[in-house]
Amino acid sequence: MVLALDTVSNLVFTGPLTWTGGAACSGQTSLFFAPAGERPETRVLREARARAICRACSALLPCRDWAREHREYGFWGGESEEERAAAGYRVDMPVGRVARYPKGDGQPVKPRESRVA
Known about the structure:
With about 120 residues, the protein is an all-alpha fold. The protein is built from five helices and no strands.
């Protein structure tokens, strides 16, 4: 068990997750991950609070990049799963409504053209 804890510690403090040390969201997990059975109206309010924290965070961009690259679910770097999917990044476990994934192989794709004629 100590070995696993040391590995996580090394990831966070010296590895690719170094940016988490200064993240404004520290200790506020419940704002960034939906509880089971969350109603859509409640999700909108929870994500608005999370978005406000992200907006003021110095780790916004590395957090967003991490979530996009590692197909995270939850609210990361100012984005929900649906917003990452709309930007062309897949998530492995979307929460809430099922997101549609545009073709892009994990890379951003151009937005769809409007169908309004």
